[in-house]
Amino acid sequence: MSAPAKLVILDRDGVINHDSEHFIKSPDEWKPIAGSIEAIARLHQSGYRVVVATNQSGIGRGLFDMATLNAINDKMTEMVFRQGGRIDAVFFCPCTAEQNCHCRKPDTGMFEDIAARFHVGLNGVPAIGDSLRDLEAGVKVGCIPMLVLTGKGKKTQKAGGLPKDTLVFADLAAAVDHLVESAQAT
Fold first, then answer.
1. CB of 42 within 8 A of CB of 10?
2. Within a 13 Å sphere around the CA of 152, how many CA atoms are in the beta-carbon half?
3. Environment class of 118 (CB within 10 Å of its CB; exposed 0-12, middle 13-18, buried 19+)
4. 122 vs 117: CA distance, rounded Å
5. Residue 28 is a catalytic residue
6. For each of the chain's 186 residues, which pLDDT tens digit applies?
7. Exposure of 142 by Cβ count < 10 A (0-12 exposed, 13-18 middle, 19+ buried)?
8. C or N terminus of the chain, fewer CB within 10 Å?
9. Which of 13, 19, 134, 171 is catalytic?
């Protein structure tokens, strides 16, 4: 499989919306980071397919159910749509870390599912996250690691050990500016 011309994989909590140590358990708790919704719309308008890959262990912990996760994701996709954008798919893992699930980042199951669903290879696809596990999962399948300093990003950067050639940006809007400008230059 060849790499798609324009696909980007985003983590959700801490990248698109403000994260919480207590989990995002309702649509009311889901608050976008300034500029993130518009950034996703810009990606779509620039010809990118936008996919979200997110660990959601709150389901496995019993903190919220599938209907609530769907309502949160509906709020996110609706906000992006209102800005003229689109999220092509949301992949999630409901398992806790203790379950050692193959789809839970830093493992690669969600990324493999994305590749299968979109019939593409992921080599060279940007994977944007705020935690080491987001970046590690992407790197294992050939993605370009991009760290944003929102959410857990500053803590992740300070801890070190980032994958080789990780690109670092202040937030999703800055990462998207880089992607769009780079695509226009080629």
1. no
2. 17
3. middle
4. 12
5. no
6. 444 459 999 999 999 999 999 999 999 999 999 999 999 999 999 999 999 999 999 999 999 999 999 999 999 999 999 999 999 999 999 999 999 999 999 999 999 999 999 999 999 999 999 999 999 999 999 999 999 999 999 999 999 999 999 999 999 999 999 999 988 877
7. middle
8. C
9. 13
Compute the C-alpha angle 162/119/74, nearest 5°.
75
**Nearest one of 130, 118, 140, 121 to 175, comparing CA atoms:** 130
Residue 101, helix vs strand vs coil: coil
Residue 13 falls in the annotated catalytic set: yes
Q: Which of 11, 19, 134, 171 is catalytic?
A: 11
**Token pair recorded at residue 68:** 């609530």
